[in-house]
Amino acid sequence: MESRLLEILVCPLCKGPLHHDRDRQELICRPDHLAYPIRDGIPVMLEDEARDLSATDTGAQ
């Protein structure tokens, strides 16, 4: 994922910054505990498509 795009993308719920998990191909919103998938290089920024992270799984550091 291009770093320039990552700089401008924010969580659609809280408008906070996202962390790129390269291994899982997801964008992680730590405050909302959500992981948005990246499919074919395109981030899917829909709440319905986001994976809910448990309290113990905060995504990649």
From TrEMBL:
InterPro entries: Trm112-like (IPR005651). It comes from Pollutimonas thiosulfatoxidans. In the C-terminal section; belongs to the UPF0434 family. GO terms for molecular function: kinase activity. HAMAP family: UPF0434. It holds the Pfam family Trm112p. One of its GO terms (cellular component) is cytosol. Keywords: Kinase, Transferase. The keyword Kinase applies. This is UPF0434 protein CKA81_03775.
